[in-house]
Every structure is written in C-alpha cells, then in structure tokens.
C-alpha cells in the first residue's frame, strides 16, 4: 500500500509515520498492493485532526477524527475504517481470495462491540425528484431551503447530473460524474 502524507500546521515526526504504517499494515490482507492511502494531519489550537482515505479498485474508505492528541485521533480513525470494512465484509470477501483474513481483522472489533453484521442493505424509501438545469449556487440555496445535507441537480454549465452536499466543516462539496 502506498501511503502519502499531508501535514497542515504541523511537522510530522517519523515515529508518527511509523505508527500509521503499522496500523495500516493490518489492512494489507484486504487491499491490493496498488491501494493508496492518503493521510492528512491538521493541528488547530487544542485540536488535532487525522483523516485517512484509502482507495483501491474503485472502492473508497474514508475516516476522520479530531482529538486533543494526534495518536488518539489516529486510533479512532483506524477503528472507524475497521468498522466500515466489517460492515462491507461480504462485498469485500468476493474481492479477495482468502475470506479468513478478513475474519482475523474484524474479530477484534467484534469482541469490543455487540454488533450484528449487515449482509444486505434495506431500502426503506424510494423517492422520485424533478431535476432541472441550475447553477451550483442555486443548488446550494435550494438544498439549504429544504434543510437537506445534499441536493441532486442538472448542472446548467455541463448539462450533467451533479450533487451538492454539506461537509462536516460547514463548507460545501460538489459530486461530478467522471468516466
């Protein structure tokens, strides 16, 4: 797995990088050698944020945590990633050759939590929406007016379906299709 680091307002020490590599090594059995992990560390006042994004075979896993200590934030992020992998265990088992290796990874989390594994997703509501060509700014305005965290629309500039969404930091993002 290739790991890249981005440090914002902090210089990362080698022992932290070694700790990240050791923690991500337990995912080695699940992800291919081509997998890429991007680690972003941000320090602001008494808050230290660690964000890890792992991309492999069109699958993306992302987790973020803010704690007073950088190592605590890293531990929390690894727990979140493990939980995401465990939740999608059946899908991942189809992608890897040995199903037992995933059990080794998720057994630690199962011991900590009494969670029933989800083998299937249940759609509880289906809704049809009328979408029309508008600008990104108009889409954000409409999203805020209906008090949602996301809004689907046809981008007037590109004539493609886009989604605007509200990020945890209060800013906005746009999802655009790519081929």
Question: Can you describe this structure?
Answer:
By secondary structure, the chain is an alpha/beta fold. The chain folds into 2 domains: 111 residues, Ribosome hibernation promotion factor-like (Double Stranded RNA Binding Domain, 2-Layer Sandwich); 43 residues, Sigma 54 modulation/S30EA ribosomal protein, C-terminal domain (SHC Adaptor Protein, 2-Layer Sandwich), CATH 3.30.505.50. The protein is built from 5 helices and 8 strands, in the order E-H-E-E-E-H-H-H-E-H-E-E-E. The radius of gyration is 19 Å and the shape is globular. It starts with a strand and ends with a strand.
Primary descriptors:
single chain, 179 residues, alpha/beta, Double Stranded RNA Binding Domain, SHC Adaptor Protein, 2 domains, 5 helices, 8 strands, 34% helix
Outline the fold blueprint.
Elements lengths: L1 E7 L5 H12 L10 E9 L2 E10 L2 E9 L2 H18 L1 H7 L4 H13 L20 E2 L1 H10 L4 E6 L5 E6 L5 E4 L4
Parallel strand pairs: 1-2, 5-6
Antiparallel strand pairs: 2-3, 3-4, 6-7, 7-8
Helix pairs in contact: 1-2, 2-4
- The coarse overall form would be globular
Report the end-to-end length measured between terminal Cα atoms. 24 Å
How many structural units, i.e. domains? 2
Compute the number of helices: 5
Residue stretches low in confidence (pLDDT < 50, at least 5 long) are: 112-116
Indicate the proportion of strand residues.
Answer: 25-35%
Strand and helix order: EHEEEHHHEHEEE
Which structural class do you get from the secondary structure elements?
alpha/beta
Q: State the major sheet.
A: 4 strands, mixed
Tell me how many strands there are: 8
Cα radius of gyration in angstroms = 19 Å
Strand order of the largest sheet: 1-2-3-4
CATH architecture of the largest domain: 2-Layer Sandwich
Question: Looking at CATH, which topology of the largest domain would you report?
Answer: Double Stranded RNA Binding Domain
How would you state the average pLDDT, rounded? Answer: 83
Give the helix proportion (percent range): 25-40%
CATH class descriptor name of the largest domain: Alpha Beta
- Under CATH, the homologous superfamily of the largest domain reads Ribosome hibernation promotion factor-like
């Amino acid at each position: 797995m290739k790991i890249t680091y981005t440090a914002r307002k902090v210089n990362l020490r080698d022992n932290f990088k070694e700790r990240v590599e050791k923690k991500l090594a337990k995912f080695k059995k699940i992800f291919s050698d081509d997998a890429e992990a991007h680690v972003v560390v941000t320090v602001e006042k008494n808050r230290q944020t660690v964000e890890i994004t792992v991309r492999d075979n069109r699958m993306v896993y992302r987790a973020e945590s803010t704690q007073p200590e950088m190592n605590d934030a890293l531990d929390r992020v690894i727990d979140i990633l493990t939980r995401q992998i465990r939740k999608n265990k059946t899908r991942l088992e189809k992608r890897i050759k040995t199903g037992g290796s995933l059990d080794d990874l998720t057994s630690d989390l199962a011991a900590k939590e009494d969670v029933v594994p989800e083998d299937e997703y249940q759609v509880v509501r289906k809704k049809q929406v009328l979408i029309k060509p508008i600008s990104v700014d108009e889409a954000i305005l409409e999203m805020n007016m209906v008090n949602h965290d996301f809004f689907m629309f046809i981008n007037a500039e590109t004539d493609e379906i886009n989604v605007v969404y509200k990020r945890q930091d209060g800013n906005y993002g746009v999802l655009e299709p790519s081929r």
